[in-house]
Write a structure and sequence with these properties.
This protein is mainly α and 562 residues long. Helices cover 64% and strands 4% of the residues.
Length: 562
Amino acid sequence: MTGILSKQRIIAPPDYNRWRVPVASVAIHLCIGSVYAWSIYNPPLTRVQGVVASAADDWSLSAVVWVFTVAIVSLGLAAAFAGKWLEEAGPRKVGVVAALCWGGGYIVGAVGIMTHQLWLLYLGYGVIGGCGLGMGYVSPVSTLIRWFPDRRGMATGMAIMGFGGGAMIGTPMKEFFIRVFYRAPEYLGGAGDVSLVTEAGRRFADVGGTLREVVVIGASEVRDMTIPGPEGVYLVNTGASGVAETFLVIGLIYLAVMLMAAFSYRIPAEGWKPANWTEPSETERGNLISKHHVHIDEALKTRQFYQLWVVLCFNVTAGIGVLGVARTMITEIFGSSLPQIVDTTFAATYVIMISAFNMVGRFIWASASDYIGRRNTYWIFFLLGIILYLSIPFAAQQVSVSPSIVWLVYFYAATMIIFTMYGGGFATIPAYLADIFGTKYVGGIHGRLLTAWSTAGVLGPLAITSLRQNSVTKAINDLVAVIEPATFQAQFGAGVDQLQALVASNTVNISRLLEIAPAGTPDPTSSLYNSTMILMALLLAIALVSNALMRPVNAKHHLKEE
């Protein structure tokens, strides 16, 4: 097995067609890129026990979003290790280990969901699967840069394009399996037809003389069900959200595809060059494209490495938090204002479109950087990104005041442009590294730079979940302040003095409070993400400064033999 996986076994013959190499790279990245469709899992993961709505013991949105965060952190840390290992072991061995980790992590996560052990979901999908993400991500990058020295940006765009498109394929596949394995819980009847009791914030119903925990669904929550059903009272732990079985099946599919792709890898022989291609002259290269090479360890001693680290980290932070809650976000901003348009199907399609634009942006922007330069490409990312992020709160405010499809179209277009630049930033950074540090150790340097992705994987979700939660808490308190205490007591079976327990048990939320609020009370959900968007614009401004200060590496850091 060691011989089959060795670097020497995959050296291509002189007449090998280099255009066959991107196929394996894209296949692996399509599998691991499905991590970008994580938000599809959020609703069923927060309703594993309640199924149609969150029960008291169900996991919170912030808890399951952090699984995505752990996966991204593990990705960056594994890439930092795998980048250097890749130079020694070759892409086939790294790709096989990546397949085992990503597919196996899904399977361990499935066990965690079935047993309702959140730590197993973190360990499986987050840690083990995240390591598979990191190794699968770096395995094709340096390989394709060596196969396409004449088009570095295009090469990295091809290598990473599949990662952006993974959610485009993964989203409908996940939606399909969740619906296949979904089972509605036992329905007891309308809320007015069932005797309900509230204890410690939980709702219970008398079923055959025994109090059984239930969830109560209002008319506004029916649209959020996996398969819409009647509003009313449902028994907890009597159905299936379908997410555990989905994890198991998808894990096996990804394992098989990634193993086949890993065994298809080939690398060029030492000294290979494309036919009729010569190294560009000093004038053709420009001052930010070096003909010298910098060792992996020496790169860490340069300020350029940390400038690029900041560029990548803040560009990713600005997008990754939104990716983790994309489906939830568009539903909350537009679901109440335009319910006939923004339903569960629309939200799932939105996630698919994010993936499509993320993927297309990776190839287009990286290829364009071959002509306009890497630094100029990032100038566009940051300047345009700042404008778009700051415009989103305005659009959210307008749709709450005057519901119109125009604002939905604007939001859709603005976020799609943002995600082309988010993906383009990922695809362009390896070519930027090759320009600054040379191509000899670019795989290892790229792997270490991906620790910026790990950091962003914490900062992005932390910002969006904490700022959103602050907005939710304020909105709930503001709504309770305008609701008559007697009306509140009649609706929830407990007084306002128990508000904290009711919120913690998922009995009280914004949509249920709006049902009993005075007529004309504005819906605050459209503004839940405003503070997050402003913060993202500020982060892009910092990255813009870091990119503007980029200069060539000092000659003292070049390899001594040069």
